Amino acid sequence: MRFRGPRRVFSQVLVMQLALITGVTALVSGLFLAPLSDQLDRQAMRRALAIAQSTATRPGLVSELNTPPSPDGPVQREAEQIREATGAAYVVVLNEHGIRWSHPSRGEVGRHVSTDPGEVLAGREVMHIDAGTLGPTARGKAPLRNSEGRVVGAVSVGIDYASVRNRLLSAVPDLLAYSGAALAAGSAAAYAVAFRLRRRTHDLAFSDISALLDEREAMLHGIREGVVALDPHGRTRLVNDEAQRLIGLRPADVGRHVTDVLGEGRAADVLSGRATGEDLLTVSGARVLVANRMPTDDGGAVITLRDRTELERLGRELDSTRSLLDALRAQDHEHANRLHALLGLLELGLYSEAQEFITEVLGVHQAAAEQVAVSVHDPLIAALLVGKAAVAAERGVALWISPTTLLPNRVVDPNAVVTVIGNLVDNALDAATGTPEATVAVELRAEGRTLLLQITDTGPGIPPEQRDLIFTEGWTTKKTSAHRQRGIGLSLVRRLTERFGGEVSATALEGGGAEFSVVLPETLANPEHVPRQAYGAGDAS
To answer: Which residue has the higher pLDDT, 379 or 222?
Structure first.
C-alpha cells in the first residue's frame, strides 16, 4: 500500500517543522555529548597521570626497587594504599625492565607488564586509554628517576573506564530534559505558525492553491474587462491583458506607482482612489472607460475597467438618429404645409406665384449646402456641417458658417476631426436652444497644415470658475440620459486635441454666449497631394 502524506498546507508545514525541530534537537544533543565524552576521557587520563607523578616522587620508592618484588613487599603495600586512597583501578610500579613491583592482583607481582613500557621508560610521560589485564582504563604513566635523574622504572596508574562512562550517562537525563523542553517549545511555536498559515490559506492543499493560481491567471487574462490590483502604497501589483490594452500599461510597469505610470489626471485619480464613487467615467486616449474600485483587506485595491467607447458611440448615434427623426418629422410637416400652399396656388391658377414659391424654397437649402461645399473641401467635414445645419434648423437654431471659413485641404484623420467638431457643435446647439435669436457660428481656417476652429453660441455662457472643469471626464451640467452618461464629449475633445499636439480653450463673450477655440497642428494633408476641387451642392447634399 502506497503511503500518502498529508495534503493540507497546515498539516504539511506542521510535519515538516516538527521533523526539522526534532532533527535539530537530536543534532545539538549529539554535538553536546561528543565533546563531553572526550572531555571526561581527558579528565580521567590527567587524573591518572597526576597520581602517577605524585607516586613517582615519593621518597624511598627508588631504593625499594632494589629489593626483590614481593606481594608482601613495601612497594606493594604503599601502592595499594595509594590506590585505595585515590580510587584508582590500579597503581603499578615497574623497574626499567618492565617487571611489576606492585599490582592489585597479587599474583601479577613479579611479572612483566602486559603493555609496552618503552615510551615511559624512555623518559616521556604517557596518557591514553587502553585495555589491559583489568580491562579498559584511562591510563597515566610517569617515569621513575633516581637521584642522578636516570630512569630506573615507571609508575602506571589506571582509572576504571566504566566510571568515566557512568559520569557521561549521568549527564544524559539532564540533557534529555533540556532537549525535551526545547522540542516542546519548538513544537508549540511550529503549531502556532502552522495554525496561522491554516487561517491564511483557508485550510487548502498546495495542489488546490496551485490550481486556484492557474485558474486566476486564466480568468484574469481571459475576461474582457480590465483588472488592475494595487498594493497599500498605490503601486501596481497585477495588470491583466485587457487593462494593458485599455490604459496603455505594460508588464514592466508592475511595481510602479499608478501616478508615475499614468501621470496626473482623472485616470490616476480614479485608480488611486482620490476620485470616489461607483461607475466612474474616465478617458484614456480615445477610449471612454467606466471604473469601479474595490478596497482589499490589506489596504490595497482592485480596479475593474470597462470599455464604453462603442456604447458611447452608439449612444451618440442614437441621439443623432432621434434628432434626425425629429428633423424628418418637422420637415414632413413643413413639406406638407408647403405642398398644401403650392396646391392652393395651382388651383387658383397663380402659376407664376407657384414657380416663385418653389424657387425660394429650394434656394434656401441649396444656398446653405453650396456655401459649405465651396468653403470646406473635406467631404466628411462638409457633410457633417450640412447635417448639423438641418438639425439646428429643426431645433430653432441658426447654424451660421463664417464667411472667413476656408478649408482647402482634406484632413489626415477625418474621424478624429469630425469627433472634435461634432461634439463642440452639439454642445453649442444644446446651449443656444431656447435663447432669443439662437445662433451657432462655425469658423474653420487653415494655416499651413494647422487647422484653426472657432465655434460660438448665444447660450448662457460659461462661469469663470467652471472653464477648467468643463473638460474634465464625467463633469456635466446636463441631465443624464437614460441610455448613456454625460460628461464625455468635451473630455474627448481635449484628449484628441492633445493627441495632435494642439490645445482647446473656452472663453465667455460679451453680452452672453461662449466661444470654443481649437488649434490642431499637422492636421491637414499636403496641398500638392490632394486635388483641390470644390464639391457642388448636389455632391454635398
So the answer is: 379
Selection from 27, 18, 15 nearest residue 185 by Cα:
18
Task: Name 305's bridge partners.
Answer: 226, 291
The CA radius of gyration of the chain, in Å to the nearest whole number, is 54
What's the Cα-to-Cα distance from 86 to each of 50, 160, 313, rounded to whole Å? 11, 12, 109
Instruction: Set out the domains of the chain in order of their start, with CATH numbers.
Output: 9-167 (3.30.450.20), 223-307 (3.30.450.20), 371-540 (3.30.565.10)
- Give the residue among 73, 79, 69 at the shortest CA–CA distance from 109: 69
Q: Does 482 score more than 60 pLDDT?
A: no
* Contacts within 8 Å (CB) and 24+ apart, 502-511: 504/471, 506/462, 506/467, 506/470, 506/471, 507/462, 507/467, 508/461, 508/462, 508/464, 509/456, 509/461
Q: What is the pLDDT of residue 259?
A: 81
Quick check: 485 and 478 in contact, CB under 8 A? no
- The verdict on pTM exceeding 0.85 is no
C-alpha cell at 328: 424628418
Q: What is residue 518's predicted lDDT score, i.e. its pLDDT?
A: 92
Residue 307's DSSP bridge partners are: 289
CB atoms within 10 A of CB 179: 17
